[in-house]
Amino acid sequence: MTAAFHPLAAAELTDAAVFYEGQAQGLGSDFLDEIERLVGLVSAYPDLGHPQPGDIRTIPARRFP
Fold it and tell me: Which of 9, 28, 40, 63 could disulfide-pair with 17, CB 3.0 to 4.6 Å?
């Protein structure tokens, strides 16, 4: 399975990384690394995470709300 972000989601991801980088040097990179880790997990194990209505699953990120 491959993963792709909708353009609006990709923009939100970039905005979040910029925000975290503004909080502490390197934190934006840590955030993107965590998202990459989660995308890899979900790509390998599509049933991972918490089921939500509408055929959606969620998985929390470590350190980042």
Answer: 28
